[in-house]
Amino acid sequence: MLSLTIARKAYAQHLQYRSAHIMRSVASIVIGYVYACIWIGVGDSGSLGEYGLHGMISYIAFNQACLWTIYTTNSLGIDALVRTGQISVELLRPLSFFSYMTSKEWGKIVYQCLYASVPIYLVYVLFLDIRTPEHPITWLWTLVAITLCAYISLCMSYLIGIIAIWTTESRWLWSLNWSVSSLLSGFFIPIEWLPGWLKPISTFSPYPSLQYIPTRLYMEMESPASLLLSACWAFTLTMVSIFMTRVLRYRLEVHGG
Fold it and tell me: Whole-model pTM?
């Protein structure tokens, strides 16, 4: 299968940089520890609701570990293809442009999951004694949730890249999306603690599917039924991505001629 071959090639390419990525993982571990320390300070002076101090540390640590699984290439590199005109060549490949770009990114996601997310998670389990699931089936639901969140993140980055047809440069939108995601995905604080007017916006957006739902499932504080929301957003974003790819073919204008 061509898509699988592309993903394997991307995975093999990232394997060449394992040593260089060790420092990135170490930095991520330290940052996650700092976040945990902040919540330790908050927990000493107030209640942390249903989470409790240990639960909140587990929540933050698991979120930090999963971060690298959903961290995609800026706009999947589509804006750079638009600026250089290389996108005209990419569109001629005997494969759906959407499938081609996401397949390359899946290789990177698998690499980052194995060489960043898993090691970071194990460090937190050993040194922060974070909560682990009591029921084996929870691991399966968590894996499904993480797969869906990675795919949703892929689609969002793809759509941001497509915007470059009109703006040439879409890095600003990727940065804006990442900032909004940090708040609405429940990365820093659980969604139920958001202000009243902001909570509904977050709840009905795709952002909770990125981190809040996988983390709550992992902590066995959420029903697997919550995956229906993630699946709906995955389907919706797929349809939008396919539609925007068609628009791309009609609107494409290569700079310089």
Answer: 0.91
